Amino acid sequence: MTYTLDPECQLPPRLIQLFLRSAPAQVQELVDACSARDVEALRARAHKLKGGLYAAGATLLAEDVEALRQVAAANDWPKAELQLQGIRREF
Predict the structure, then answer these.
(1) Residue 4 or residue 72, greater confidence
(2) Which of 6, 32, 74, 79 could form a disulfide with 57 if both were Cys (CB 3.0 to 4.6 A apart)?
């Protein structure tokens, strides 16, 4: 699947650039929380990243991050790691 930004996104280009600079660190925080099996940290980081993705018009990727949050909340860490691999690949 190929993810793209919504061309109708109303976020100013400067804010999209800011998000794109901060997003890799946010993804790494998800990786760290998943490695530590820290549901609360993963939930908080996923929420933050998902909001930025929606704002930037990356709806499908935001939905994948939400799915990761739900899988981790269910303590299905092997599935969470697979979900996270897909998210990292798309970034």
Answers:
(1) 72
(2) 6
**Any alpha helices (H) in the chain, and if so which ranges?**
13-35, 39-56, 59-73, 77-90
Q: For residue 37, which of 8, 90, 9, 73 has the smallest C-alpha distance?
A: 73
Cα separation of 53 and 38, whole Å? 22
> How far is Cα 41 from Cα 54, in angstroms, rounded to an integer?
20
Those residues whose C-beta lies under 8 Å from the C-beta of residue 27, and which sit 6 or more positions away, are 49, 87, 88, 91
Rounded distance between C-alpha atoms, residue 13 and residue 33, angstroms = 30
Q: What is the mean pLDDT of residues 54-83?
A: 94
